[in-house]
Amino acid sequence: MNDLSQQTDITRKRLLWRAMHRGIKEMDIIVGGFAHARLSSMSIGELALFEALLEIPDQELLSWTTGQETVPEKWNTALLHEMISFRPHLT
Q1: Helix ranges (DSSP H) in the chain
Q2: Which of 6, 11, 34, 71 has the smallest number of Cβ neighbours within 10 A?
Q3: CA-CA distance, 59 to 30, in Å (whole number)?
């Protein structure tokens, strides 16, 4: 395994942990579930965007997810909309 591949694996693990420990249970489920399902297939660019999305406060991200507020143009990306529409399989 080369250095870039190792670093990418470390980044994915770090992002997964952050996504699953947001602070608001609903966001843990949505963001963490999305990360669990999708991180392994994200490109380097998507990983960087996802990391930036994790910096958004829970309340703000939750309001976009629930449709209470419109997603600002800066964050209006395919990846965010994929995450918003993600529905984890709860059994």
Answers
A1: 3-20, 25-38, 44-53, 58-65, 78-85
A2: 6
A3: 13
Range of the domain at 49: 3-85
Total domain count, the chain: 1
Closest CA to 8 of 59, 37, 45: 45
Residue with tokens 């993600």: 86
What's this model's pTM, rounded to 2 decimal places?
A: 0.89
* pLDDT per residue as tens digits for the range 45-63: 999 999 999 999 999 999 9
First to last CA, the chain: 36
Q: Using alpha carbons, list the distances in angstroms from residue 9 to 6, 23, 34, 74.
A: 5, 24, 17, 27
